[in-house]
Structure to design on (567 residues):
């Protein structure tokens, strides 16, 4: 061989070998032609937060490191639901199959009382549980992140908090939908934050840089002092001062005593799949297992996606499950939830026995009020790392921007999670949900939630990571997304894109996304007594599927700015 050709040949072999090595150890070559990734993935509600999570994974952090970083990043870039002043739930499955769930749900303050939202005549003043200082529960997010990181994190605490701090300090470009939303909510922000300047600005433009100095200071204290950076010292003082100013109840004692809690995950089966999900104080896990148990015996694949039979069957299952939710579910530390009975497959089969294909079952006569909030202002993110550890986190302030109250000087919003309690039996909350004794207000109790972060296994291996915001519709959106993949053979993105519908026992209506049911199916169901109401969007699912080839396929909900990033 001529010398030059030989050198070129050797160089080529070296280059090809280099490429092969890079693809083995990672680099940017984890992507295949279908847009699936080998080395890890983050799907969240905001492009900046997904980027933070991906950077942490690339740096050698695991899924928990990335989850903590994304939680804090969302508190900066997605103030409608991302938070340090709220709470949430985390579901975890390690690559080896260890599972756990973390409850960092808010708690009622020590001075809360059962009738705190009733007037002298005993009528519910629902505005008070939804807006302003009295609506806030004791925040759980910071302690939750501290506990998750302490148990499973690999990088240092400072390394996972720093990216959020950078975003607050240096600013980030707001998206188009944020520009519109921030402008639209100025009236409420002004109303609940008199005399403050934070976040008050009438004109917002897509792409403008938003810097949050007060929040940066708070994040710095959290970075340097861990849980004490939030639950003690300067930030605790600012929270309590804010409460005093606006008639709220959260005290220094409440903050000092708050503890997130590891709970035994709820585990069930659907066909070949194992479902790992959130136990109470979320109603989501129990309700999801009940729904899956209710429909398992029916040939959904044959009925087809969103056919009249599928819709009817799912609606009847949902009607029964949400009726149970209203009566039986509450904080297990305060109320004995009949968990074992509810998730027993036989129980759901019996509940479905009186369902009649010829006509709609009638929900009872209890009067349910209007559902006043249709925002999707909780947020969910799903993460998998290179080893195959998986995390699902759903976190919230409850309504969009929570109580609307900013803690003066600390730059973050407080939740309005107290509205998730049943303020009075028979009075619906902002999602139209009813409740009673099980979910009555008590000091230190956690309010019932619908948040359903969930992980699925197939044949002992990771299969799916899934969750969504959407208040009462969370459970049905997770349920339908799972069925879209398992029964209707959709890929992850199509399963997330697919139109959803929802029934919650009361009000007596099937809520459906525009275009979600074809007119013939709708007519058939209306003739059987089903009432439909259209709604723009239901849920905002962010999920990841592990394909049989071992790649991760993301589903980022197009209903929002949700972004999937992998490597
Ligand atoms: O925990 C719950 O169920 C509610 N606080 C969730 C609120 C929510 O998803 C808001 N988005 N629509």
């Amino acid at each position: 061989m001529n010398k030059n050709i030989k050198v070129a040949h050797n160089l080529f072999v070296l280059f090809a070998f280099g490429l092969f090595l890079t693809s083995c150890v990672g680099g940017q070559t984890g992507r295949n032609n279908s847009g699936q990734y080998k080395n890890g993935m983050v799907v969240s509600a905001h492009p900046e937060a997904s980027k933070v999570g991906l950077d942490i994974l690339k740096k050698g952090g695991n899924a928990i490191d990335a989850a903590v970083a994304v939680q804090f990043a969302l508190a900066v870039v997605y103030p409608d639901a991302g938070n340090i002043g709220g709470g949430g739930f985390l579901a975890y499955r390690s690559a080896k199959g260890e599972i756990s769930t973390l409850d960092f749900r808010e708690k009622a303050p020590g001075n809360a009382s059962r009738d705190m939202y009733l007037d002298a005549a005993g009528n519910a003043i629902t505005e008070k549980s939804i807006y302003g200082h009295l609506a806030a529960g004791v925040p759980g997010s910071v302690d939750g992140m501290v506990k998750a990181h302490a148990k499973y994190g690999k990088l240092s605490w400072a390394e996972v908090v720093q990216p959020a701090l950078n975003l607050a300090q240096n600013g980030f470009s707001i998206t188009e939908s944020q520009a519109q939303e921030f402008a639209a909510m100025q009236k409420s922000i002004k109303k609940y934050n008199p005399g403050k300047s934070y976040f008050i600005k009438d004109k917002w433009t897509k792409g403008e840089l938003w810097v949050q100095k007060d929040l940066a200071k708070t994040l710095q204290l959290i970075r340097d002092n861990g849980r004490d950076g939030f639950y003690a010292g300067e930030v605790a003082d600012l929270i309590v001062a804010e409460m005093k100013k606006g008639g709220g109840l959260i005290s220094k004692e409440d903050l000092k005593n708050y503890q997130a809690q590891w709970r035994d995950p709820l585990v069930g089966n659907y066909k070949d799949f194992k479902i790992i999900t959130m136990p109470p104080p979320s109603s989501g896990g129990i309700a999801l297992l009940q729904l899956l148990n209710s429909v398992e015996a029916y040939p959904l694949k044959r009925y087809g996606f969103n056919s009249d039979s599928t819709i009817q069957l799912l609606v009847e299952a949902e009607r029964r499950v949400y009726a149970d939710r209203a009566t039986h579910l509450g904080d297990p530390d305060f109320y004995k939830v009949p968990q074992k009975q509810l998730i027993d497959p036989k129980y759901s089969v019996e509940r479905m026995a009186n369902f009649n294909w010829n006509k709609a079952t009638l929900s009872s006569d209890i009067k349910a009020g209007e559902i006043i909030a249709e925002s999707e202002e909780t947020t969910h993110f799903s993460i998998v790392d290179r080893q195959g550890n998986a995390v699902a986190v759903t976190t919230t302030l409850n309504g969009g921007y929570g109580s609307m109250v900013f803690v003066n000087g600390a730059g973050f919003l407080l939740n309005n999670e107290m509205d998730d309690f049943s303020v009075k039996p028979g009075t619906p909350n902002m999602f139209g949900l009813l409740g009673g004794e099980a979910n009555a207000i008590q000091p230190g109790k956690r309010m019932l939630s619908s948040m359903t972060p969930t992980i699925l296994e197939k044949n002992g291996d990771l299969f799916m990571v899934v969750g969504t915001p959407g208040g009462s519709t969370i459970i049905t959106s997770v349920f339908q997304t799972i069925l879209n993949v398992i029964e209707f053979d959709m890929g992850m993105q199509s399963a997330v894109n697919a139109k959803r519908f929802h029934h919650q026992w009361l009000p007596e209506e099937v809520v459906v996304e525009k275009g979600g049911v074809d007119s013939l199916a709708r007519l058939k169901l209306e003739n059987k007594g089903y009432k439909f109401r259209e709604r723009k969007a239901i849920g905002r699912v962010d999920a990841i599927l592990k394909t049989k080839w071992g790649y991760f396929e993301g589903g980022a909900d197009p209903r929002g700015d949700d972004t999937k990033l992998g490597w």
